[in-house]
């Protein structure tokens, strides 16, 4: 039995020594080869941030500070393009077009009382269908999205024209 323990102890010491030697070699290789590469990458990222990132962030905050209304309108237009229901559903609710039909005492009920029978595919029928979450909602949402895209395009044109006008006034032309 003492021979087995001695053999196991010697085997463990040999494996441990081999592992320590390999680990030491890997550490030296890492310090010699990998660390300079990581330092170069870190330096490059820091340089890129200082040259491009920091000025971009400064310009972004300056834009937000000088154009809060334009930014809010642009974000609302983008949200409307993504989910037009933020405009159409409250609009239908205010008019009185509900999921069970026009609400009593609403503008929709008043208009229906004036026009009488609703014609198929008429404007009132489309709004009534939209209120009931039918095909009219898809049609109404498409018009709302088109309007939001138009607002976004006009906003971008306005900002470009304003930027060019400001540059001209600063340069003296």
- Radius of gyration, in Å, reads 35 Å
Physical arrangement of strands within the biggest beta sheet: 1-2
Helix segment tally: 6
Low-confidence stretches: none
Shape: elongated
Give the biggest sheet. Answer: 2 strands, antiparallel
Q: Taking all residues together, what is the mean pLDDT?
A: 88
Distance between the termini: 100 Å
Q: Which class best fits the helix and strand makeup? A: mainly alpha
Number of DSSP-assigned strands: 2
Helix and strand string, N-terminal first?
HHHEEHHH
- Give the domain tally: 2
Which oligomeric form is depicted?
A: single chain
Strand content: under 5%
Tell me the helix content.
over 70%
Describe this structure in words.
This protein has 173 residues and is mainly α. It folds into two domains: 1-66; 68-171, no CATH class. The protein is 84% helix and 2% strand. The protein contains six helices and two strands, in the order H-H-H-E-E-H-H-H. It has helices at 2-66, 68-82, 85-95, 107-115, 123-131, 135-171, and strands at residues 97-98, 101-102. A two-stranded antiparallel ribbon has the order 1-2. Helix 2 packs antiparallel against helix 6 and helix 5 (123-131) packs across helix 6. The longest helix has 65 residues, at 2-66. The termini are far apart.
